[in-house]
Each structure stands twice: as C-alpha cells, then as structure tokens.
Amino acid sequence: MELSILNVKGEDTGKKVTLSEEIFGIEPNEHVVYLDVKQYLANQRQGTHKAKERGEVNYSTRKLKRQKGTGGARAGSRRSPIMVGGGRIFGPRPRDYGFKINKKTKVLARKSVLAAKAQANAVMILENFTFDAPKTKDYLQFLDAHSLTGKKTLLILGEADNNVYLSGRNIPKTKITTASQVNTYELLHADRLLISEPALIVLDNLLNRYQ
Fold first, then answer.
1. What is the pLDDT of residues 102-127, one digit of tens each?
2. Could you give the CA distance from residue 168 to residue 153 in angstroms, rounded to a whole number?
3. Is the pLDDT of residue 61 over 90?
4. Kind of pairing, strands 2-6 and 174-178?
5. Are 145 and 159 members of one domain?
6. Domain containing residue 72
7. Domain identity same for 108 and 38
8. Is 20 a residue whose pLDDT tops 90?
C-alpha cells in the first residue's frame, strides 16, 4: 500500500511512502487483539477492593440468645453474615488482575490493528514536524488543516517531542504517543492514526523483529 506524505498544514508534499506488507498488509487477527486489550484493561485495575468478612467485623462474639426454645433459628454472633452489619460472605480481597501474554501475541495484535486501520483508510503519514513552543492553538490549527477537528485521533511520533505533546494533551479525543510506547488499545480506540515518517521506521523495526 502506498500513501502520500502530508505536511503539518495538511498539504501533499509530493512524496510517497510504501507501507510494510508485513505490518499493514496482513489479515487482522481479532482474537489476539481481544487478548491484548483485555490485558491492558486488566492492568489498569488497582485491585485494592476489600470487604470485611465475619472474622474481621468488630462486634462481640457473645451468643445472642439461647440455642433452643425460642422458636427461631440459631444465632451465635452479630458477626454472622445473615445479621445486619455482619461480615460479608466471600467478599472481595486485594488482588492483581494482570495476566501474561506472549510478546509475539502482543506484536501480532498491534500489527492486526494497524492493518485494519490501513484497510479502512484511517491512516495518514506526516512528514516530521514540531512546534516552536507549546501552544494548544497550533495543535488545533494542525487538526483543522487535516479536517480532523472533533475526531478521535492518535498521533504517533518517532520520539518524544515536548512541544507537540504539551500542545495537544488538553484537547478532547486527542492522544499523542511515540512508536515505542504505543499499545493496541490506543490504536484501536482512535478513529484516525497520524503516523510521522520517523515513527513509521521505528514501527517497522519494532514489529518486524518478531517473525
């Protein structure tokens, strides 16, 4: 697949780039995408939830009434889960929700999303650019020049650029990252991928390392 390279003003530079068939030309694998997104979302969970069970509730353990002869069920303690204010049965405890995924699976997931976005014409290649200073106005003009105002966009840079990042971080539906840090969830969540030329080279090197 061949795409034109655009500049920061949304104009065609006259240059073209051929996207790697090993990344953008594969058949997307939906299952590995599901696994990678599931792991990402699981890792976002703090897992600090906790409820007190009957052994942790601060009540007296004295027997509430005699065992027999009352006409009601036996009652041994206010800590019992069936009592109001008693402990919870099998309540949540702190835990780690993370799980392991093989590196090749994660790489295939990213390739699959990139391929799907390319096939849906949702990928734009930009020549390398930066801003003179962090200005949100400059980034809004950049989005407007590419007719992306109000759309969910993911800008992938070759390396961190503080001016570009600070210019766009407060804009709704806008995400800025680097090629080495981008993940499957971010790729999938965006309506349009904006990939700089240096980022395309980094992605090729990273994702084609595992064959």
1. 999 999 999 999 999 999 999 999 99
2. 11
3. no
4. unpaired
5. yes
6. 48-96
7. yes
8. no
